[in-house]
């Protein structure tokens, strides 16, 4: 079993319930991961993903090895048949299989380069590990998806929702740098697995991948989108159309207390890290309605659920979900 996309979740409501059970007793399965090793490979920076996934593994009694590929690993080649006479020292074929000798599960973080849309959509790094590793793979945010974050978001919303079908708004907000679309993509996919009145709001030109937004209501008027919302999830992403470009830095899209007044006393969510007074004002982020710290806390239980499922699959093949490698 891999966990590389939201599509790996067979029943979101079941997974959320299981994660909340883990949250109540995180050390209950302390022996499950005994003598098993999680290898965490980072091609990009992280705070939450690194520490929460490591904490989750420790809660299960696993050993953890962390490697920062940006400054510690050999530069990898991903192209089949490449003549490796320039920058890259090692091919993914050997690298992934070698890491599999040391680790029972491999977790990979490799963001979008935001230069070549086709290459990012092909998930070169993650796909390379999925194809060539011989152990399960966990996506710790790839070029197009952040399924651990989206699972933690689902857990958090389940904890805070006060009605069966809440109104949830995913709002673009400004940012000085070009950011990937991964968090927004996985959040959208996750929202499609639950009962909610879901609205996506962003400026013209910031449309996400149409394959992912199919059937999603888009409202270009942010104020209108916020009306009576129960959850406001803010996130920046760079343009998908003008791939990787920052074509809009309109500060009128910053989430303010004034805008939050339009909502139904909505909870404020963000995956973090967040740029204060750019994405969201201090007033909103420091308010009682902000649940960003609980979202970050739930990253541990999302990761622990995923690790637990993989460990059970490996320990007892009868429990395996028969999913083809993606
Ligand atoms: N939300 C999230 O993935 O945080 P990090 O980039 O710090 O891991």
UniProtKB/TrEMBL annotation:
Q: Which Pfam families match?
A: OTCace (PF00185), OTCace_N (PF02729)
Entry-linked PANTHER family:
ORNITHINE CARBAMOYLTRANSFERASE, MITOCHONDRIAL (PTHR45753), ORNITHINE TRANSCARBAMYLASE, MITOCHONDRIAL (PTHR45753:SF3)
**NCBIfam families (alphabetical):** PRK04523.1 (NF003384)
Q: Which Gene3D superfamilies match?
A: Aspartate/ornithine carbamoyltransferase
Record flagged with keyword Amino-acid biosynthesis: yes
Sorted alphabetically, the Gene Ontology BP terms of this entry are:
citrulline biosynthetic process; L-arginine biosynthetic process via ornithine
Recorded catalytic activity of this chain's protein: N(2)-succinyl-L-ornithine + carbamoyl phosphate = N(2)-succinyl-L-citrulline + phosphate + H(+)
Kindly provide the name given to this protein in its UniProt entry: N-succinylornithine carbamoyltransferase
Q: Report the residue ranges that make up the Aspartate/ornithine carbamoyltransferase carbamoyl-P binding domain in this protein.
A: 10-159
Superkingdom assignment: Bacteria
Per UniProt, subunit arrangement is: Homotrimer.
- EC number, as in UniProt: 2.1.3.11
Q: In which pathway does it act?
A: Amino-acid biosynthesis; L-arginine biosynthesis
Q: Which UniProt keywords are present, listed alphabetically?
A: Amino-acid biosynthesis, Arginine biosynthesis, Transferase
Regarding protein family, the annotation reads: Belongs to the aspartate/ornithine carbamoyltransferase superfamily. SOTCase family.
Residues recorded as binding N(2)-succinyl-L-ornithine, renumbered to this chain, are 141, 175, 235, 275
Per UniProt, residues of the Aspartate/ornithine carbamoyltransferase Asp/Orn-binding domain are 183-307
> GO molecular function terms here?
amino acid binding; ornithine carbamoyltransferase activity
Residues the record lists as binding carbamoyl phosphate: 46-49, 74, 109, 146-149, 271-272, 299
What is this protein's function?
Catalyzes the transfer of the carbamoyl group from carbamoyl phosphate to the delta-amino group of N(2)-succinyl-L-ornithine to produce N(2)-succinyl-L-citrulline. Is essential for arginine biosynthesis.
């Amino acid at each position: 079993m891999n966990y590389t996309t939201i599509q790996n979740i067979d029943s979101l409501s079941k997974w959320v319930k299981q994660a909340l059970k883990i949250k109540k007793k995180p050390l209950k399965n302390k022996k499950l991961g005994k003598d098993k090793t999680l290898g965490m490979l980072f091609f990009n920076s992280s705070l939450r993903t690194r520490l929460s996934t490591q904490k989750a593994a420790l809660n299960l009694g696993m050993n953890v090895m962390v490697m920062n590929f940006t400054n510690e690993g050999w530069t990898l080649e991903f192209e089949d048949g490449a003549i490796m006479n320039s920058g890259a020292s090692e091919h993914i074929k050997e690298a992934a299989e070698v890491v599999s000798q040391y680790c029972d599960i491999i977790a990979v973080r490799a963001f979008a380069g935001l230069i070549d849309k086709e290459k990012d959509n092909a998930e070169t790094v993650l796909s390379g590990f999925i194809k060539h590793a011989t152990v399960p793979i966990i996506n710790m945010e790839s070029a197009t998806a952040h399924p651990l974050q989206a699972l933690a978001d689902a857990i958090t919303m389940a904890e805070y929702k006060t009605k069966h079908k809440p109104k949830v708004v995913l709002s673009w907000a400004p940012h000085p740098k070009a950011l990937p679309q991964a968090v927004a993509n996985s959040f959208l996919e996750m929202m499609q697995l639950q009962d909610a009145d879901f609205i996506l709001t962003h400026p013209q030109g910031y449309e996400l991948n149409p394959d992912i937004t199919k059937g999603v209501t888009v409202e270009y008027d942010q104020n209108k989108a916020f009306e009576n919302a129960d959850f406001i999830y803010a996130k920046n992403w760079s343009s998908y159309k003008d791939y990787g470009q920052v074509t809009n830095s309109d500060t009128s899209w910053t989430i303010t207390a004034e805008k939050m007044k339009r909502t139904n006393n909505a909870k404020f969510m963000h995956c973090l890290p967040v740029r204060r007074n750019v994405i969201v004002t201090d007033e909103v982020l420091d308010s009682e309605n902000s649940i960003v710290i609980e979202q970050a806390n739930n990253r541990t239980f999302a990761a622990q659920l995923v690790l637990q499922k993989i460990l059970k699959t490996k320990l007892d093949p009868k429990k395996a979900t028969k999913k083809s490698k993606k």
